[in-house]
């Protein structure tokens, strides 16, 4: 089979970024699609309290699973550098040591977070009437951390060498499989929210195994010989210096979300369910911006590896144009269809008028600030791909502070409306740091390569 690895160091940045981003976008859409369907099935077949229980775990889900995804993305940065520099030996060394580290991280994290699962929910002040739903769901998700690592490390490495299509194919398969398993476990087997979690884990495991099979059959540049399998402690150290900060970036951001969720949980199950449904819609609509960010990490990594620094600015401009155009389109879509989108989660929209009104207001406020989110994703991932993950952590710290402010002051004083402004405030804080940070990084690379 022909490899679809792609070199992003030559050609039109707009064309390359658009072409590389499209499969990532479709993959994100399918990933969010089955997450949406997951939530819709829970809301329609198990009720509002089950929906609130699943939604109340969103912040600790992001805290832990986001760390896993960030670590894998960080491990891929040195791979993109060596691919851009055409250093096959270095590429394979980074690959094999990334696999070893991923195995270690997955086992250790599964043990720790499974033990601490219920204490974390108590710390979040999860309402007692939804506690059992929340625990049943998130405990199974945490047991599936090895599956999360398997898929994310392989898909990150495949993207690092310029192929964004192969992970898409397996995400599509996984999405439809997840929907089918949801219906089987929840509707037929009556497994409740545990069935929704099990469907997610199994579908991701299958997607990861398919990625492994394709790597073995298709990507000869990623094949590891017997003599190349020896662990390299220095290489592992370099990988951790990239991967751990990227993972912490997600987790630090999530700490602010935990503080926010703790305050939101005190507002009752209806508000929690409203924000759960709204966030699902918002995450789905922000998929193109997430895809742009992931694209810029690979684009930045390959061009730094090839020492083509002028292309960094050109790529940033092209991505910014795409991000702004989409943000405006998403806002128009929300203006006309926000209530229809939220109604998908309800078995009787008329009987849940308060939740519908809350969710519509949330979506209009958040959607009005999508341009800020576009720059957060584009600039932050660009900086990471260029090899400066600690700066991305600082942006995550600012997001954490902003969401903490929202949780400590905005929600207690303004209730649901305060929660609506938490994410826009976080994006504003992050952008205020990231744009000057990019200018600093570019100048530093200019001096280093000169």
Question: How many domain units?
Answer: 1
Per DSSP, what share of the residues sits in E-state strands of 2 or more residues?
under 5%
Backbone structural class = mainly alpha
What is the end-to-end distance? 41 Å
Q: Helix segment count?
A: 18
The low-pLDDT segments are none
**Judging from the principal axes of the Cα atoms, what is the shape?**
globular
Order of helices and strands: HHHHHHHHHHHHHHHHHH
Helix content: over 70%
Question: What is the typical, i.e. mean, pLDDT?
Answer: 88
Overall radius of gyration: 21 Å
The number of E-state strands comes to: 0
Report the major sheet.
none
Description:
With 450 residues, the protein is mainly alpha-helical. The chain has one domain. It is built from 18 helices and no strands. α2 crosses α6, α3 runs parallel beside α12 and α15 packs parallel to α18. The protein is globular. The protein starts with 12 loop residues before the first helix and ends with a helix.
